[in-house]
Amino acid sequence: MDTHHATSHDLLHDEAYAPLPYSPLPDHPVPAGAPALGQRRPLKVFAATLASLMFLVSLVALVIHQSPQTPVTVDNDGPFIEREGRGVAQGVSEKSFLGFSGRRLSFNWTTAMFAWQRTAFHFQPEKNWMNDPDGPLFHMGWYHLFYQYNPDSAVWGNITWGHAVSTDMIHWLYLPLAMVPDRWFDLNGVWTGSATILPDGQIIMLYTGDTNNSVQVQNLAYPANLSDPLLLHWIKYENNPVMVPPAGIASDDFRDPTTMWVGSDGNWRVAVGSLVNTTGIVLVFQTTNFTDFEQLDGVLHGVPGTGMWECVDFYPVSINGLYGLDTSAYGPGIKHVLKASMDDNRHDYYALGEYDPVTDTWTPDDPELDVGIGLRLDYGKYYASKTFYDQVKKRRILYGWISEGDVESDDLKKGWASLQSIPRTVLHDNKTGTHLLLWPIEEVESLRTNSTEFEDVLLEPGSVVPLDIGSASQLDIVAEFEVDNETLEAMVEADVIYNCSTSAGAAGRGALGPFGILVLADDTLSELTPIYFYIAKDTDGSYKTFFCTDLSRSSLAGDDVDQRIYGSLVPVLDDEKPTMRVLVDHSIVESFSQEGRACITTRVYPTEAIYGAARLFLFNNATGVNVTASIKIWEMASADIHPYPLDQQ
Ligand code: DQQ
Question: What's the 310 CA to ligand 1 centre distance in angstroms?
């Protein structure tokens, strides 16, 4: 560890944080081979301080101009009441972040701060609560997204299916609710489900109903009018349910049917997540008519000790292909992905493996990377995800539910909670053969506006370099880093037991990391969210690269918001440099390393680094290595998301 140099950028409230000394960058991009940027000098400090002051003044003016500074009154003194989340009581996992401190909220949020948190190009309902994506599909020119929705409140409950359509999965039109809990077989909630498009174009929707007696059953619904491009009306099959919990399965451990696929006998198959003791399992049912389902013997797969598997997703990927595959695809050159959402820890795990269509079983390629114990789709906040096959662009698209990282009482004040991720394409990682590549759909690039590029910026150990790009609340960032090879080779430090989550975050200085970017930071660095690489050298001389996001200093709101450090190991192959793509959209930051081999989605709630005060920096907090960064930043326009003008039809 290096010694701690005091600078004006040290956080006063956190002495454990290593300094991020400050090296101003000229307004213009740095040409290749430009002289190294030095550490901060007094004159520059003065200039920076003056700039910060002017900046603060303009921020205050902006905030005052934009909305009244209405402090939200909070009750700090009342006793904290331990309670079980309403989801758990109803047979699903906890749905909200309940805070760290076990106390009621303490931060004086203003309405302007809350208003800033609403995103500009992520899908979210106009108001109230949303969770899992449901039944995504493409029909007659429209991408349809259904979602778990509480029409009455910003907390989980009274779950119905919200509905929206889009021609590009970026700009959305809200439609009326697709299904509400109004029958005995779904009276406690129209829970998660999936769509299957049959070869003749019929659409079969299977979903979990939580019955009037809180039993989880699978129900069938279908469009009232298939020639309606908007699929406004849905009919629930009169003789629902079509599947009930089989013998040996608890009535509240049977949910979330997948998209169906055709088995080796030509019958349709559907998978449903479940639990036996502590083993998460996938049950398989077959049908010929979509109303009568027969359970197959055994399970598709199960992993002891992983708990209930929610929102199972099961689909093929092409091993060397560049396209996605329809769900029934099977044959040489194809692997199958099994994904499940772990009720116990609320993370989405996947594994690549072989599907045997005769026995209807799936075997992971690497038992050590099995579902629930190996790879995750995303190492941040990302849950209950679901894919569909986009027959138009021949690609598999993944949606994920991004919950809030603030407390429920704040969600109620904001009047909304949760987002959907930017949809991601899913491809097999042909280079590693062990991972998937998840990448924001190309349509999001249509929102890119002004861009600024900085090439070959030298980041000396301990430097923080501001990037002069103006406001930084809506960005698409692509960055590539190069670590000085000579130093890398000469380094003898063995630092192999690194772990983003248990590390000291971006403050923890090693010889070869951390280095990366600071998003949603203010000029004085009182708030900052580092997204970074940390290279650890193994005893045999090989390297391991970690990709992390550190929320520990992301907000002055303290315990009211998520302060964890997220991340994982990411394979960086010999011919690759550490690269990242980061989408910043107000309170959500989606980060992708190595073309999507590792992803980290976080929710960030700054109190200072908002509106015009949000800034972007490069940093290198390693002690022993120079890093060169090349970075391109686009400002992002807002997506058009509003109600469909049905009255004008
Ligand atoms: N959400 C739904 C369930 C599912 C859970 C209920 C996952 O069907 O298991 O809102 O978040």
Answer: 7
